[in-house]
């Protein structure tokens, strides 16, 4: 038995934030039905290369689509037609949750907005994901991860420091705001379901990418709100902890993540510089932050004297947090990642064994199950109509 066995989720979303939430709910056991446009489907189906390719036909799907759409059943319904709208309303009447990421007001003309569906299913939890939310001056605008990373302050904190070669704002290498929004959406849905189970009442969840980006500025936002000074880009350095960044080695680079004075003292002993640990400029973290411009060059001159492997072996033996900077081939070959099962394969009728990244959730009593490979467009239309509606509504 899975944690969310019996929960029905109608996923009207596409691209990443909404589908990520839908996949997570599916991983936890929900029956997630993904509604897609006939003939086209989710935009990310064609966001390639690279592709997952069938051996005997021309069928293919973008790897991008594969990352966010397992444990879902796909139905092809045209929301622009009265028949399609009626079909989705019938499915919503049976659903526990609806996920959607249309523009504000985009579903109202179809009779598929929250108020319309609440009238036929008062217990419905309806989660709307937009760039800027349902209210405010930017509400009508479309929002995209890259845009939100810039508007929400993340890019002002990411990238090399001013004055360094290659300085300037930089986005994160994955669509992090979309991913975080999908996680917040999942949390909100589970909270709303708990409320529904207590009261019998559903509710509308208004989730905005910009809100999520601002909320997850975390300590950087707190630094600004407390000081009135906007943090600046520091490359890989930390604004509040020193040393906590990358350092060159004899054959590459490594990361030091020293979080307290004891760890720093142990590093100094291993590095052959025990005097640093008692130097008043470096003995405490506040002193190291104030004197980072002096300490970091001294450390860099020392770290280049050994290889990455030599440093990591010596530092790990003394419980000094450190690690390599891995490429993805090294990530998926790492013995810890292998041991934790973070690479999985799912059997697909068209594509054979499809490689995917596993869920990080480990539940002792109701573990995640991988039941359905990322589906072909409309693959489960007839099946879902029979399961949810008894086949009472014809395909649009």
UniProtKB/TrEMBL annotation:
<dbReference type="Pfam" id="PF02515">
    <property type="entry name" value="CoA_transf_3"/>
</dbReference>
<protein>
    <submittedName>
        <fullName>CaiB/BaiF CoA-transferase family protein</fullName>
    </submittedName>
</protein>
<dbReference type="InterPro" id="IPR044855">
    <property type="entry name" value="CoA-Trfase_III_dom3_sf"/>
</dbReference>
<dbReference type="InterPro" id="IPR003673">
    <property type="entry name" value="CoA-Trfase_fam_III"/>
</dbReference>
<keyword id="KW-0808">Transferase</keyword>
<dbReference type="InterPro" id="IPR023606">
    <property type="entry name" value="CoA-Trfase_III_dom_1_sf"/>
</dbReference>
<dbReference type="InterPro" id="IPR050483">
    <property type="entry name" value="CoA-transferase_III_domain"/>
</dbReference>
């Amino acid at each position: 038995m899975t944690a969310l066995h019996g929960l029905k989720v109608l996923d009207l979303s596409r691209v990443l934030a909404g589908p990520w939430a839908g996949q997570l709910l599916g991983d936890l056991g929900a029956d997630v039905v993904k509604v897609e446009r006939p003939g086209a489907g989710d935009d990310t189906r064609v966001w390639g290369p690279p592709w997952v390719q069938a051996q005997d036909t021309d069928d293919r799907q973008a790897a991008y689509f594969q990352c966010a759409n397992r444990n879902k059943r796909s139905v092809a319904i045209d929301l622009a037609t009265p028949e399609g709208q009626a079909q989705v309303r019938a499915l919503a009447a049976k659903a526990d949750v609806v996920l959607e990421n249309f523009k504000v007001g985009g579903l109202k003309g179809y009779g598929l907005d929250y108020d319309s569906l609440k009238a036929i299913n008062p217990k419905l939890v309806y989660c709307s994901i937009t760039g800027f939310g349902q209210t405010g001056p930017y509400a009508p605008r479309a929002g995209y991860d890259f845009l939100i990373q810039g508007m929400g302050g993340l890019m002002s904190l990411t990238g090399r420091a001013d004055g360094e070669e290659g300085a300037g704002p930089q986005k994160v290498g994955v669509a992090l705001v979309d991913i975080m929004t999908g996680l917040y959406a999942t949390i909100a849905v589970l909270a709303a379901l708990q409320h529904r189970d207590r009261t019998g009442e559903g509710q509308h969840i208004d989730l905005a990418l910009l809100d999520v980006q601002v909320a997850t500025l975390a300590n950087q936002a707190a630094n600004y709100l407390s000081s009135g000074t906007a943090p600046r880009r520091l490359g890989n350095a930390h604004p509040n902890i020193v040393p906590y960044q990358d350092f060159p080695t004899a054959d590459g680079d490594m990361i030091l993540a020293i979080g307290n004075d004891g760890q720093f003292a142990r590093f100094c002993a291993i590095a052959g510089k025990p005097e640093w640990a008692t130097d008043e400029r470096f003995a405490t973290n506040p002193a190291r932050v104030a004197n980072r411009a002096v300490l970091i060059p001294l450390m860099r001159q020392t770290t280049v004297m050994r290889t990455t492997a030599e440093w990591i072996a010596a530092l790990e033996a003394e419980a000094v947090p450190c690690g390599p900077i891995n490429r993805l081939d090294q990530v998926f070959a790492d013995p810890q990642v292998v041991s934790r099962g973070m690479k999985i394969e799912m059997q697909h009728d068209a594509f054979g064994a499809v490689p995917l990244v596993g869920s990080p959730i480990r539940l002792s009593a109701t573990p995640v199950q991988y039941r359905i490979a990322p589906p072909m467009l409309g693959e489960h239309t007839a099946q879902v109509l029979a399961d949810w509606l008894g086949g009472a509504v014809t395909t649009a």
